[in-house]
Amino acid sequence: MQKLLTRVAQANTLLCVGLDPTGSDEDVTRRLPQVIAETAPYAAAFKPNLAFFLSRGNGTQLLRQVVAAVPDGIPVILDGKFGDIANTAMHYAQFAYDVVGVDAVTVNPYMGADAVVPFARPGKFVFALAKTSNHSPIQEAELASGEPVSEFTAKLLADLDATHGNIGLVAGATDAAALSRLRQLCPTQWFLVPGIGAQGGDLAAVMKAGLLADGGGLLINASRSIWQAEDSAAAARELMNEINEYRSVTA
Ligand SMILES: O=C(O)c1cc(=O)[nH]c(=O)n1[C@@H]1O[C@H](COP(=O)(O)O)[C@@H](O)[C@H]1O
Prior knowledge:
Elements: H1 2-11, E1 15-19, H2 25-39, E2 45-48, H3 50-54, H4 59-69, E3 77-82, H5 86-100, E4 104-107, E5 125-131, H6 137-140, H7 149-164, E6 167-171, H8 176-185, E7 191-193, H9 203-210, E8 218-222, H10 224-227, H11 232-250
Parallel strand pairs: 1-2, 1-8, 3-4, 4-5, 5-6, 6-7, 7-8
Helix pairs in contact: 2-4, 8-9, 9-11
Orotidine-5'-monophosphate binds near residues 49, 170, 195 and 221.
């Protein structure tokens, strides 16, 4: 978190550059370091999605190259949406932190707190799924109390953060009203917000719903709209500037 806060303050950005590399193995090997170098000035963080690396066969090696290519001081979030019992989770955590060397991960908390805690190592950070950007009848289902499962999950994640201090939420950009309710339940935690760009999320509504009074608290991710842009640097710069406009309006 300290690394992220320092980066956000120094580079004045809340943009998370998603790395979901598509193309031939040759293209990807060539473009990954290029896209990282070109977009780094605008990046508060990078988020490689594990699936896009594992599907290539040399995924672990490519991920390590990503970590090496990202300039010092910019956090890397491995988007693996990990979610298994504690004993197994510990091995995923070793993969992410010790083998690949990332700063943070995404985790699926639906198996319970024991699926999350092994990733909450001191000095590392966890973004756990609370309300995803796709339509999920499970997250929208209401408990007997009338509370949606996504809000029950958010409360669990607030409690976990109170204990561990390094738990954030994933809240999709496609449902700003839900994001706003999560913000009420989790008034200080950082939200990783995917769904801007290719998935059509409403940036203005998201910023209004989730930005903290200090101008932080949201990490706005875009993957395809940067990787697949003709000019990835321009796409990243424009989105960063757009995000910052809403920061100044809201502040
Ligand atoms: O955890 C995530 O990053 C994630 C959560 C979610 O609710 N929705 C979602 O799209 N993501 C990821 O965010 C990225 C979105 O990519 P684009 O739609 O291309 O910007 C992908 O890597 C998704 O796997």
